[in-house]
Amino acid sequence: MIAALITAAAALQPARLRHRAPHRIVQSASATDATERESYLQYNAHAWRGVCRSVVVDATRRRVDYDADLDGKRYSAAVKRRTNGDLEERFSWDDDDAIETTLPSKDVVCDFDGSYSCDRASSLVAGTAPSFTIETGLAVSDEARIRILALYDGATGLLKRIACLDEQRVGATESTGGAALAAEVDDVFAVSGEWAGDATVRRPDNSACRVLKQDFVLRCDGERFYRGLEMRMPGDLFSTDAKTERTLLESYGEVSEPGLAYDSVVFREDGAVLCILPGCYALCPFALDEEKAFFVEAGCFVDEDDRQGQLPISVRKGIMMEGDPGTSSRFLARSVRLYAPKRELKSVTTSYHQLVDGD
Known about the structure:
By secondary structure, the chain is mostly beta strands. The chain has helices spanning 2-12, 29-44, 313-318, and strands spanning 23-24, 47-58, 63-66, 74-81, 87-93, 98-103, 109-110, 116-122, 131-141, 144-152, 159-169, 179-181, 193-202, 209-220, 224-234, 244-255, 263-267, 272-277, 280-285, 294-304, 319-320, 330-340, 344-358.
C-alpha cells in the first residue's frame, strides 16, 4: 500500500524545470520606491466597473461553496487619491448600499505596474462587521485590474469568503490593448503545467528589494493536486551575497467536488485551501493562528492580446525575454504575502511567469 502511494505521488511530480525563464529588470529599492508608489497611485485612483466572483468558505468543515449572495453581482468603485497618498474608495453594488473605506498608504506594498497588496479591515456587505481582509490588486492590462480578497472573521480568524473583483476602468474601450483575463482557466486541469519566471521580494516598508528566479509546477490527476516551487536566490535574501542555493517546496492536496464556476483543493497537512475562480486563484489558510506563521497567495492568468500584439502589462513593463520565450501566450501574475506570528508581515513576493509546458 505504501509503495503504491509513493509510486502515485512520483507520477504527479515532474522533472525539475530546465527552461530559461523571463528575465525581470528591476533597479534597487531606493531608486524605484518613489516611482513605484506613484505608479500605484496613478493606476488605481480612478472609477472602475466590475463583476464579483465569490465563494463562501466553511473553515471548520473545510468546504468551499457557491456564494449565492455576491457571485455574479456588478458594482462600481470610485477610488480617489488623498494628498497624503491614501486612497479613498466608495464601493457601490448596483442593487445595494455603498461601502466607504480608506486604504492607508503605509499599509500598501506596491509594484512597478500599479499592482499592490495590503491587509485591512473591510467588508463586501454593507452594514456588517468588517473582516480582516488580505487584498491583492493585480494589473491585468492598461485599463483592467483584478482584485483578489481573502476575508477572515475578525473574532475567530476563520476564513469565510474568497472573492475576485474583475474590473475595467470607466471610459475604457475594448480595443485598449494590453491583455485579456484568461477566464477559461477555471479548474485544476486548466492551471496545470510548468511555469517559469522571475520574482521580486520586498520588505513591508520597501526598504529592501531582491530579484530571484522562481519556477513552479502544478499537476493534477483528478483526485490529487501537486504543487512544487523552485527558487534560486542568495543565502540571505536581502543581502548582496552572490552565493546561491536551490530550494524546492512541495505539497499535495485533495481535489474537492467541482462547484458552480469554481474548483477547490484542500491541503490538509498545511491547513489551507486553493480556490480556482475563472481566470484567477487564491491559496489561503483556513484559519489564522496568532502563534503561527502563514502566507496568502493570489494570482491571475492573462493571455497575450492577439489583436494588439502586446504582452500583459506586468510582463511588458518589467520582463525582457531571454533567448526563445516559447510559443505559449499565457502568463501568470502572482503575489504572496508572508506573515510571521501575530500577523506581522515579513515580505511580499510578486512574480511573473510564462507557461512553458502545459498539460
